[in-house]
Design brief:
Layout (H helix, E strand, L loop, with lengths): L1 H11 L8 H9 L6 H11 L3 H6 L8 H7 L18 E8 L9 E2 L4 E8 H4 L8 E4 L16 E5 L19 E5 L2 E10 L2 E5 L9 E4 L4 E11 L6 H14 L1
Antiparallel strand pairs: 1-3, 2-4, 4-5, 5-10, 6-7, 6-10, 7-8, 8-9
């Protein structure tokens, strides 16, 4: 231990990484808490994750995301990869808040009540730094059947300007996530002067909605990805659509 830790201390240029036999004996026989430098040395020599060593002293890095979310401002919280070890775990939302109305479209960050630990390796290829996430309400049929109620969408907040563009199919047409005075919406958009039109899918039972822009509608970003259930919801969707048509 002394020899290996001395090598680490010399490589790092800091004697705080050095662990003597006397110090290690004291650590084993008392309730003393090692410094960050010595924890790093122990992690290297014993091939144990640094975060795992921290849990021995009541510090769980997996809770960092939870605490950041609890004290976060109105802005959607974005996970940062630097905070977690590749082989460790990260806390992610697993339970909705009791007050959340799943019938309405919403930003995912405002719907969360419970969090759970997920291996970081599962998330390493997601662009968590650049994106926000939204939930399409169970009664939101604006882009049905292209975008089903209950879907999750990935939003790029850097793409907030609606520009006229050409597209070959409906799948190429840009979809935008909007924040409105009374909630959120997701769909195709057109800006006409000082008015923004939220356009439904041709097969949707919904009508075009118009808002003063930018006063009554704010563009959160462009939808760049969709997680959508394809099986098991057709009957419910047909019933809900039938009710919407009867109302109109």
């Amino acid at each position: 231990m002394e020899e290996k830790s001395q090598g680490i201390a010399e490589a790092e240029g800091n004697d705080e990484f050095y662990i003597s036999n006397a110090w290690l004996t004291k650590l084993e026989n008392t309730d003393s808490i090692p410094s960050v430098h010595k924890l790093v040395t122990l992690s290297v020599i014993y091939h144990v994750g640094f975060s795992e060593l921290l849990t021995l002293y009541g510090v769980d890095l997996g809770h960092v995301g939870v605490r950041q979310f609890e004290v976060a401002s109105r802005t959607t919280y974005l996970l940062t990869t630097e905070e977690y070890e590749e082989h460790g775990e990260i806390s992610l939302p697993v339970q909705f808040a009791d007050s959340v109305d799943l019938n309405g479209t919403n930003l995912f960050s405002r719907m969360v009540k419970g969090w759970g630990d997920v291996p970081f390796a599962v998330l390493k290829h997601l662009h968590l730094r650049q994106n926000s996430y939204g939930f399409i309400g169970m009664h939101d049929y604006t882009l049905y059947p292209l975008l089903r109620p209950g879907s999750f969408v990935q939003i790029d907040p850097r793409m907030r300007r609606i520009q006229p563009s050409r597209w070959r199919t409906e799948f190429d047409r840009p979809i935008y996530f909007l924040e409105l005075r009374e909630g959120y919406a997701c769909g195709w958009c057109e800006v006409q002067g000082n008015e923004l039109a939220l356009l439904p899918h041709p097969l949707s039972p919904c009508n075009t909605r118009r808002f003063a822009f930018p006063g009554d509608a704010e563009i959160v970003g462009r939808v760049t990805g969709i997680a959508m259930r394809l099986a098991g919801t057709q009957d419910d969707a047909e019933i809900a659509i039938g009710k919407l048509f009867r109302r109109q």
